[in-house]
Amino acid sequence: MRKKYVTVFGSSIPSPGDEEYELAYKLGKKLAENGLNVCTGGFQGIMDAVSKGATEKGAEALGITLAVYNARPSKYLTKEIRCNTLFERLNKLIEYGNAYIVLNGGTGTLVELAIVWELMNKKLLNEKPFACHGTLWKEIVHLMEEQIKREKRKTGLVKCFDDINECADFIIDKLKD
Questions:
Q1: pTM tops 0.85, yes or no
Q2: CATH fold of 5-175, please?
Q3: How far is CA 146 from CA 10, 11, 100, 140, 166, in A?
């Protein structure tokens, strides 16, 4: 039985055929092939792609949606948890994750990255495998790590990858029983 969930954060904008969508689809498949379920914000774009890839390989795809968005949930979800507030949604996304992956996104994805990182940094959340994919996050993480060093806090909580397979492999390896 598949028990572990990887919460994947990312943009709702990419469509099938877009590079970002196809990378997320590939990620969902690879996680599922290695016995992991996925948890996303449950809507379109990267969330849809990850869910599609995972369910095609027999994994669960949990969507934590937000009622006020009034958007169409991904048709690939195996389960939906509908939340009434953004903070409730963020808490559920974090709660269900045994690990986290941040794919390309905008300010909403930046908030998700920052909240998970802050919770781990302040020991309000146990350290869990946490990876980012792409140049944008690599630059942001590098800049923040410099500040974290100055603050004498723990660095290295977030790993950055240019290759989606290396990103997936890092998470898969960390979640092996």
A1: yes
A2: Rossmann fold (3.40.50)
A3: 24, 26, 22, 10, 24
